[in-house]
Amino acid sequence: MPPSQSPFEQLFDSITKIEPDKGYWFIRTDSGQHFEEFYVNGYIGIGWNYITADNIKNLSISEFKEKIALNEKLDMSVKKSKGKVTAIYNKIKRFQELKKNDLVIIPSRSSSRFAFGIVEESGIYIESDPKGKCDYRKRKKIKWIESKTLSSLDPIFYQITVSRHAISSIKKYQNYIDNETENLYVKDGFGHFVFDIKTKKDINVDSLVSFIESIRRLTEQINQDFSFGEDISKSSIKLNLQSPGKIDFKAPIGKSVIILAAILALSNGCTIDSHKLPANAKDQIEGTMALHKDTISSINKGFKDLDVNMDKINAIN
Fold first, then answer.
1. Host H or E run for residue 118
2. CA quadruple 57, 60, 63, 66: dihedral positive or negative?
3. Closest by alpha carbon to 212, among 293, 294, 299, 297?
């Protein structure tokens, strides 16, 4: 490590950075027919096999639409038929526009489950010999993150199912989606640390206020101890205390939030890979933990009171 480099740079670099141009998409699965096929085999696909990847790249708009009309036996001079051709064209072009690192959600039958995934490659690949239950040849590789029941998600996700389009942009829901797929991330100049609240009981106001105040206080102490120079006064908390719910704590730049996550992971018996947290960096963090053990203890009490999902507290690894 160069002398001028912080011992925490490897840790900071390992945290998910969400770029502002990231796309968020809802991809229908033909009434759930292709949900399992897509999820198990790591892809999404679109029909109209007579349109090839070369057609998408090389045909003019008019040529593209003419080919659709010919294969679908639609008369472009008829307004209704012309509209159908345009709809097919738009679906295929939108599928092409899905780029690497965009996030996609696919619904199961009746939208009872949502699968969350990341586009692995911008380009379309052609499956020349489709097997399984899907004969779509135009495909994109997807790294699936997880599948969740719709009932377990924030009620806002029900609004996503309203659109009947085959492919819909859902970027306006990006904050909710980020907090489902990530526990610790940096976006738009802020670090986010998301706590999953599992309790189905009424939340005690004093316990909640004490927990939030302890999180803020420890973050301020970290900022001071490590001389990060972050304006913690601009930090904020976003609460969604459904049953279950989430607390999204965010602070400018995010270094203090990342160290906060490391401290809470270590204080709860989690380990952090040595290539992310070298010995000298870990020693500094443990020194801070010793100085602020009362505040850390208060936070851990809050974890119990709020029934925080401890499996996700180790957000570093």
1. strand 113-119
2. positive
3. 299
Sequence ranges of the chain with CATH classification 3.10.590: 23-181
The single residue listed with the structure tokens 């897509």 is 38
Residue 116's CB is within 10 A of a number of other CB atoms, namely: 18
The number of angstroms, rounded, from the C-alpha of 258 to the middle of its chain's C-alpha atoms is 18
Segment 129-137 shows an average pLDDT of: 89
**Strand spans (E) along 158-285:** 167-169, 184-187, 190-197, 236-240, 245-252
Give me the DSSP letters along 137-191.
-EEEEEEEEEEEEGGGS-TTHHHHTT--SSEEE-GGGHHHHHHHH-SEEEETTEE
Mean predicted confidence (pLDDT) in 185-192: 96
Position 241 scores a pLDDT of 74
pLDDT of 5 reads 66
Helices and strands per DSSP (H, E), number in the chain: 11, 12
- Print burial letters for 127-141: b (CB count within 10 Å at least 16), e (below 16): beeeeeebebbbbbb
Distance CA 270, CA 263 (A): 10
Quick: pLDDT tens for 151-162: 999 999 999 999
Task: Give the contacts of 237 (CB within 8 A, at least 6 positions apart).
Answer: 212, 215, 247, 248, 249, 250
Q: Class assignment of domain 23-181?
A: alpha beta
Are 131 and 41 spatial neighbours (Cβ–Cβ below 8 Å)? no
Number of Cβ within a 10 Å radius of residue 251: 28
The conformational region for residue 307 under phi > 0 = left, psi -120 to 50 = alpha, else beta, is left
What kind and span of H or E run contains 18?
strand 16-18
Q: Which of 171, 302, 289, 306 is nearest to 244 (CA)?
A: 306
